[in-house]
Design a protein that fits this description.
The complex is a heterodimer.
Chain A (H helix, E strand, L loop, with lengths): L1 E4 L2 E8 L2 E8 L3 E6 L8 E3 L4 H12 L11 H7 L17 H11 L4 E2 L2 H4 L17 E2 L4 H14 L3 E4 L16 E4 L6 E5 L4 E5 L4 H11 L15 H6 L7 H4 L2 H4 E7 L5 E4 L13 H4 L8 E8 L6 E9 L2 H14 L4 E8 H9 L15 E9 L2 H17 L5 E4 L3 H12 L1 H8 L1 E8 L7 H10 L4 E7 L4 E8 L4 H7 L2 H8 L24 H14 L30
Parallel strand pairs in A: 7-9, 8-9
Antiparallel strand pairs in A: 1-2, 2-3, 3-4, 4-5, 6-7, 10-11, 11-14, 12-13, 12-14, 15-17, 15-18, 16-17, 16-20, 19-21, 20-21
Helix pairs in contact in A: 3-5, 11-13, 12-15
Chain B lengths: L4 H15 L7 E6 L3 H11 L3 E6 L6 H15 L3 E5 L10 H9 L3 E11 L4 E8 L2 E8 L2 E5 L11 H7 L4 E4 L32 H10 L5
Parallel strand pairs in B: 1-2, 2-8, 3-7, 4-7
Antiparallel strand pairs in B: 4-5, 5-6
Classes of the chains: A alpha+beta, B alpha/beta.
Chain lengths: ~575, ~220
């Protein structure tokens, strides 16, 4: 059956057990999409004539595979059903050899990676849940190169995925289809550091842990910290407005970023890289890029305010019987630890069991009894005696009031690290345990744990539901661990989790962002009018929509036709 | 100030001996300036019954520590003396052996297993040596120094930390123990080992071969 529509030729062939749709536009490339088990995606060039299409078809039915960096589509769909309802936007061009030649002219031969084995890691996210089929990864070393790359891609209408450490958990850092990967990893210079004021200026590809080590020597520290610090890059942290364990103490990145240098989709460089603590001249445009997940512009340089690294750190691991006790402990911590409180995390028994069973060398600090909830409370201050006194006082109050059933104080650095490893190692343990469905929710603290219990009740024996997270910020990491990815389990989880969160006026993504995973879920936490404004911003900053497409904003928010201007009309 | 890890293991073993019924009391000793009381508090929080702080500002080396311990042992008359095999600040590994010599007690060093046999008034010690495991039977009272694999020390839990505040720490000086601390040697110099030089990033195999041949001279 053949139908024609405005320069498109659509053919549908059915041959059991295969069926595929062929989309092509006359005069350009033919894109074929297979939809059955153990099928492969192929791209075949064609000049749009019907007879030639038929000969392409015969090639395809013999299962010709063009690219070996592809994966069977049904695997992707099983892991995230959003793949099933996302089509590659045919308005994006396909990568050509000429494009590669141009890229090589901009960044040099060795900074353009095209081999399948080189691209494998970059095409796949940290969870192994989101996999793309990009054929090119670019590693610019300067802002000028980033600008030239984006300018070229915008003219050619090539979609681009900016990529930092690739540690995101919502599929926002990997291609959905064949977008070109723009890796910032080679831009890892520290530009300057103001030792009197703690202002650090560096490039976006700097790894968070390396920055922290650099600052440690100067008596400062990065204001954010979380499990991925050994791999994540500051540019990515900014683009996702990353949170972490110290948000409670040092505030979010929105508060600590003093300046940014950004490259827009058309290559224009926006230099907002001031290092001023206060600057009320006009609208604070850099704020819109923080947390935009690479969809409005690419961050290339950062100016960040860093706090002093204080000498006295303590961490305690506490066991509580009820979730209400955890909340009471938080209140006591705020009143009695006050300004030295630097982290307040919680984990439930199942999360502790998970991390203990998958980590060598970690042991339960409170082995004498199984508590339902555990708290990890950290203090950071400049005077050991003062902090210890406050901590002892806080602990005594908690014990007296029966808020805490038992607890341990870390006596030295090694114990300190191992307590933190109990909390930070849960994510990795979950990945090792099998399939994991991850949700990152902001929920008013009094109701926070209810979703864990409700969901476990819903799932019964099918999966194990656990909760842990930044209790001090009202942020729950809801994780469902199952032996394998299963659409039945998934259908019990979504949209229940989102609807429950929306009904409690929470956020469906506290700190992980929307990425690819939750691009359709924004309406659970933002009004349609707000989303419309976001869409207008997106169209304004990236008229061809080449930056990180298919993510963050729902496709439905873009009206057909109004999303793109014709390339030939662009100014 | 944190407890020397090997001493922590020794304390854990002492607590286990007491829990097995072979001992009635665990006394912990620390020698030095005021910071020692913190370490003693931690030890009491782990479960020790009382602490003794030998207060001195002078630097202490194994010979002096051994003499002080000998004086304390004469006062307290313990049935078993447990020490860490060495301190991680000076790495001397001498105190346990010297105090056993002074007291003329049997010693089981680098213990990886300890079992007190009250009925025979002895202690069985397994030691890790080059060739394997050596089993000793020592007549009590004895000196044992502990090695890493003996046990994993317990954490000090909150209720015990609270209780520890009320446990006594006695303070005593070397003069009261009639021990003279002499300095038998001078440390002339302490030097850090040479820093490892940073690696060099190479851009091709040809460059690697060139460097290996002409700079490192290994080809």
């Amino acid at each position: 059956m053949v139908s024609f529509a405005r320069g498109f030729c659509r053919l549908k062939f059915t041959k059991a057990p295969w069926s595929f749709e062929v989309h092509c536009s006359v005069g350009s490339e033919l894109f074929v999409r297979h939809k059955q088990i153990s099928a492969f995606t192929s791209v075949v060039r064609c000049h749009g004539e019907y007879s030639k299409l038929l000969s392409c078809y015969s090639l395809l039915t013999h299962g010709q595979r063009r690219h070996n960096s592809e994966i069977p589509e049904v695997d992707r769909v099983k892991k995230d059903p959003r793949y099933d309802r996302t089509l590659r936007d045919a308005r994006f061009s396909k990568l050509s050899n000429q494009d590669l030649v141009e890229f090589k002219k901009i960044v040099g031969d060795s900074s353009v990676l095209t081999e399948a084995f080189e691209l494998e890691a970059a095409n796949r996210d940290w969870l192994g849940k989101y996999v793309g089929t990009s054929q090119a990864l670019l590693r610019p070393r300067t802002t000028q190169q980033v600008s030239e790359i984006l300018s070229y891609c915008n003219t050619r209408r090539l979609a681009v995925v900016p990529q930092g450490g690739n540690t995101g958990l919502v599929g926002g850092s990997v291609p959905v289809f064949d977008e070109v990967i723009l890796s910032l990893g080679a831009m890892d210079n520290i530009i300057s550091f103001d030792e009197g004021n703690g202002i650090l200026v560096c490039e976006a590809g700097c790894i968070l842990e390396k920055l922290d080590s650099f600052l440690a020597e100067k008596g400062y520290m990065m204001p954010l910290d979380f499990g991925a610090k050994g791999s994540c890059q500051i540019g990515g942290n900014i683009s996702t407005n990353a949170g972490g364990i110290h948000l409670l103490r040092y505030g979010s990145l929105r508060a600590n970023i003093l300046g940014l240098e950004i490259v827009l989709a058309n290559g224009q460089v926006i230099d907002s890289l001031r290092s001023l603590r206060k600057d009320n001249t006009g609208y604070d445009m850099k704020q819109i890029f923080i947390g935009a997940e690479g969809t409005l512009g690419v961050v290339t340089k950062v100016s960040i305010l860093t706090p002093a690294r204080l000498s006295s750190r303590n961490v305690v691991f506490l066991g509580c019987k009820y979730f209400t006790d955890c909340q009471r402990a938080l209140k006591e911590a705020r009143s009695n630890l006050g300004e030295i409180l630097s982290a307040f995390e919680f984990l439930d028994r199942k999360a502790l069991d998970m991390v203990l069973s998958h980590s060598d060398g970690l042991r339960d600090p409170l082995p004498d009894s199984k508590h339902s909830f555990y708290l990890l409370v950290e203090t950071t201050g400049s005077c050991f005696n003062h902090d210890r006194e406050k901590l002892d006082n806080f602990l005594e109050i908690c014990m007296d009031k029966g808020v805490v059933a038992d607890g341990v104080v870390a006596q030295d650095n090694q114990q300190f690290r191992s307590f933190w490893q109990l909390r930070e190692g849960i994510t990795e343990a979950l990945s090792k345990a099998g399939a994991v469905y991850k949700y990152d929710l902001s929920i008013p603290v009094p109701y926070m744990y209810n979703i864990v219990e409700n969901l476990q009740h819903r799932l019964g024996d099918l999966a194990v539901v656990m909760g842990y997270g930044h209790l001090g910020d009202g942020n729950l990491h809801l994780n469902i661990s199952a032996p394998r990815y299963d659409s039945k389990i998934f259908s019990l989880i979504e949209p229940f989790v989102y609807e429950w969160t929306a009904s409690h006026k929470g956020s469906v993504s506290a700190e992980h962002g929307l990425g690819f995973m939750k691009a359709d879920a924004i309406y659970y936490s933002k009004s349609p009018e707000m989303v419309q404004w976001m869409t207008r911003f997106k169209q304004m900053f990236d008229c061809n929509g080449i930056l990180n497409p298919y993510k963050v904003l729902p496709g439905s928010s873009f009206k057909e036709g109004s999303r793109y201007r014709n390339v030939s009309n662009s100014s | 100030m944190s407890m020397n890890p090997f001493c922590e293991i020794a304390l854990e073993e002492a607590l286990r001996v007491k829990e097995s019924g072979a001992a009635s009391e665990v006394v912990i000793v620390s020698m030095g300036n005021e910071k020692c009381t913190e370490v003693l508090r931690t030890g009491l929080a782990m479960g020790a019954d009382r602490g003794i702080h030998v207060a001195t500002e002078r630097p202490l080396y194994p010979l002096a520590v051994a003499k002080l311990l000998q004086a304390l042992v004469r006062k307290e008359e313990p049935g078993l003396l447990l020490l860490g095999k060495q301190a991680i600040d000076d790495d001397c590994n001498q105190t346990g052996q010297m105090v056993a010599g002074f007291l003329n007690w049997p010693q089981g060093t680098f213990a990886s297993k300890v079992k007190v046999d009250k009925s025979e008034n002895c202690v069985h010690v397994e030691r890790e040596i080059d060739g394997g495991l050596e089993s000793l039977r020592l007549q009590l009272p004895a000196v044992i120094t502990t090695d890493l694999r003996l046990n994993q020390p317990r954490y000090a839990t909150l209720p015990n930390i609270m209780k520890a505040k009320k446990k006594p720490i006695a303070k005593v000086t070397p003069e009261e123990l009639q021990v003279e601390i002499t300095e038998d040697f001078d440390i002339l110099e302490v030097v850090e080992p040479d820093k490892r030089k940073a690696g060099v990033m190479l851009s091709s195999v040809d460059e690697l071969l060139d460097k290996l041949k002409n700079e490192a001279h290994v080809l």
